[in-house]
């Protein structure tokens, strides 16, 4: 692997040294701000459109978010704090240089699209001040020149912060998190008051009859049950935890238990903030049942005025910043000699262009499930390679040890798992939200089985090559005697 430049503090190609490792507060701030953010202002209202009932929503979020925290704590962080490499450097050691660029490209593009939806969210708030024409729920293309100009400006500001590096992202997040948490709480309280809730005892009745009464979904939405909510809450960040993208984040953690900081994001962001945003949408529908557009800016403006608009803008930033940072790492891993700063700016530009198209944000539930499924198999490969292969007498990081440009079991596992998931959705009748769990387990088992066959064959080829060389038989016997001794 290439030597780290002494002037580059991001350690894209080498393990993070002790002097650069961070305490738990850095991760608490990042996860609280990243998940109390722009996505929440879209996902909350989109939940309401699914016709989910109040009890299914609340308990599904409790269980699903707990599973997500455990995934970071027990699966992602232990590997990250032992190896201390980015996801992309780790995969290069495991898969070889030929396979990793394809994965990095898919990873970077997916992250750019996710960040683009957050730029859309921030633009809906900035657009309230400028009076531009807002996109409707069914729009695919930009709604006009004002929308394009606003989105480009917001995207440019976000890209510059992300390009400054992880420490800039973490500092920005730590400053924004406490304020945004209070604003999201205010959204929920004000929304409940608008719906006639004046006492704590009234919340249950309002939740079950006026906010999430259950029933038929609105046009274009899937009917959600407890299981839909649970699996969505668990797997909306699948690419980050079981998909192992947050190896790039937790490589800076001094201890693996700092992954508990993700609970701040899950139970403040993916619980309180989702519910608060959903309440805002319920208020909008109560005022005008025909107004079904999901526009976080106008909803927040109606609740909290200027403070609400600022919250939406900053909320979009705090999600898009680390997401563009991750995308920049993915693209930089494809071209290691390229400047990470410039590559991250490129990722920001792609995300900004994606943000021009409102359909990406309006269909966020399905997109999040899809991108997690695409990136999930390689997370299972990393887990199996790090924990299982050595216990089975197989070689970890086979591509690096053997100098292989492409480790076939990893490539075959990714392709076969995605094909199996697609078949389950297309012909098996399994909804996209549920396919990733069996897919992850399949990838784990498939990678171990293929590695066992591949490495046994590679060992046999090596033995035959030694036997065919001058003095080869003697060398084999000496090697066997040495291992027995």
Strand content: under 5%
Show unreliable segments.
Answer: 1-8, 466-485
N- to C-terminal separation? 34 Å
Sheet having the most strands: none
Structure description:
The model is unreliable at 1-8 and 466-485 (pLDDT under 50). The chain is 72% helix and 0% strand. It has 485 residues and is an all-alpha fold.
Can I get a quick summary?
This protein is an all-alpha fold and 485 residues long.
Topology diagram in text:
Blueprint: H1 24-35, H2 38-49, H3 54-83, H4 87-95, H5 100-130, H6 145-163, H7 166-194, H8 203-211, H9 226-235, H10 247-250, H11 262-287, H12 296-304, H13 306-334, H14 340-355, H15 359-362, H16 364-391, H17 398-402, H18 408-426, H19 436-468, H20 472-484
Helix pairs in contact: 1-7, 1-11, 1-13, 2-5, 2-11, 3-9, 3-11, 5-6, 5-12, 5-13, 5-14, 5-16, 6-13, 6-14, 7-11, 7-13, 11-12, 12-13, 13-14, 16-18, 16-19, 18-19, 19-20
Keywords:
20 helices; disordered N terminus
């Amino acid at each position: 692997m290439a030597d780290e430049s002494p002037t580059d503090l991001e350690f894209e190609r080498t393990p993070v040294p002790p002097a650069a490792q961070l305490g738990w507060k850095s991760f608490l701030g990042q996860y609280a701000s990243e998940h109390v953010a722009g996505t929440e202002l879209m996902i909350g209202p989109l939940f309401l459109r699914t016709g989910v009932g109040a009890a299914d929503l609340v308990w599904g979020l409790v269980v699903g978010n707990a599973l997500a925290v455990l995934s970071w704590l027990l699966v992602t962080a232990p590997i990250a704090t032992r190896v201390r490499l980015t996801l992309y450097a780790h995969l290069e050691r495991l898969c070889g240089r030929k396979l990793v660029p394809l994965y990095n490209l898919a990873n970077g593009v997916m992250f750019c699209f996710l960040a683009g939806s957050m730029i859309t969210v921030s633009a809906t708030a900035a657009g309230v001040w400028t009076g531009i024409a807002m996109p409707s729920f069914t729009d695919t293309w930009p709604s006009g020149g004002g929308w394009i100009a606003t989105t480009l400006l917001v995207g440019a500001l976000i890209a510059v912060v992300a390009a400054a590096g992880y420490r800039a992202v973490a500092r920005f997040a730590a400053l924004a998190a406490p304020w945004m948490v209070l604003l999201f709480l205010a959204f929920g309280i004000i929304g409940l008051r608008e719906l006639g809730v004046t006492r704590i005892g009234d919340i249950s009745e309002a939740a079950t009859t006026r906010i999430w009464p259950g029933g038929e979904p609105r046009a274009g939405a899937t009917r959600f049950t407890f299981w839909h909510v649970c699996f969505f809450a668990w797997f909306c960040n699948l690419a980050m935890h079981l998909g192992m993208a947050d190896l790039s984040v937790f490589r800076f953690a001094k201890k693996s238990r700092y992954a508990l900081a993700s609970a701040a994001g899950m139970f403040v962001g993916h619980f309180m903030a989702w519910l608060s945003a959903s309440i805002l949408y319920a208020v909008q529908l109560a005022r005008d049942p025909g107004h079904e557009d999901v526009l976080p800016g106008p909803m927040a403006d109606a609740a909290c005025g200027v403070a609400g608009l600022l919250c939406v803008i900053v909320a979009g930033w705090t999600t898009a910043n680390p997401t563009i940072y991750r995308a920049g790492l993915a693209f930089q891993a494809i071209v290691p000699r390229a400047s990470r700063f410039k590559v991250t700016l490129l990722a920001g530009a792609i995300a900004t262009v994606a943000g021009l198209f409102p359909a990406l944000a309006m269909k966020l539930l399905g997109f999040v499930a899809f991108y997690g499924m695409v990136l999930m198999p390689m997370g299972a490969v990393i887990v199996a390679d790090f924990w299982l292969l050595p216990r089975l007498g197989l070689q970890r990081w086979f591509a690096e040890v053997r100098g292989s440009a492409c480790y076939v079991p990893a490539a075959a596992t990714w392709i076969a798992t995605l094909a199996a998931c697609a078949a389950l959705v297309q012909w098996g009748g399994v909804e996209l939200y549920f396919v990733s769990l069996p897919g992850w387990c399949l990838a784990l088992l498939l990678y171990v089985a293929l590695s066992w066959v591949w490495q046994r064959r590679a060992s046999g080829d090596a033995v035959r090559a030694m036997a065919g060389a001058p003095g080869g038989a003697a060398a084999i016997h000496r090697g066997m005697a040495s291992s027995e001794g």
